[in-house]
């Protein structure tokens, strides 16, 4: 997980990444895994990573798109330029589905403290 909560598909052994290739679905899956770890162990050191991942996913959400069909969807990744005029945005239902699962796990596992992060994210 990067400092901003994102995850890149191609993270190398020295932790460098390509310029393109973030995977929002990967960040959401990491949050689910971190939440399950927290639920089993109670290890609070994982909480900042959970919150960082959720904030990243929420920052990738279409909140006010020109196309109303996109409202609420989560952007999976931005594609590298290829010299054409195709859209650089890659949408997959996986990003949105995994984000919803991560948010639901968060609310279930951390219910009393959950509104703090969600309220902060929604206020931005």
Short description:
With 124 residues, this protein is mainly alpha-helical. The protein is built from four helices and two strands, in the order H-H-E-E-H-H.
Overall average residue pLDDT: 81
Query: How many DSSP H or I helices?
Result: 4
**Amino-to-carboxy terminus distance:** 22 Å
| Poorly predicted ranges | none
Number of strands: 2
Per DSSP, what share of the residues sits in E-state strands of 2 or more residues? 5-15%
Spatial extent as radius of gyration: 15 Å
Let me know the largest β-sheet.
2 strands, antiparallel
| Whole-number total of structural domains | 1
User: What sequence of helices (H) and strands (E) makes up the elements?
Assistant: HHEEHH
Shape: flat
Helix content: 40-55%
Q: Reading side by side through the largest sheet, how are the strands ordered?
A: 1-2
User: How would you classify the helix and strand content by structural class?
Assistant: mainly alpha
Structure notes:
With 124 residues, this protein is mainly alpha-helical. It has one domain (24-123). It has helices at 24-41, 47-59, 93-109, 114-123, and strands spanning 75-78, 89-91. Strands 1-2 form a two-stranded antiparallel ribbon. It is flat, with a radius of gyration of 15 Å. The model has no long low-confidence stretch (mean pLDDT 81).
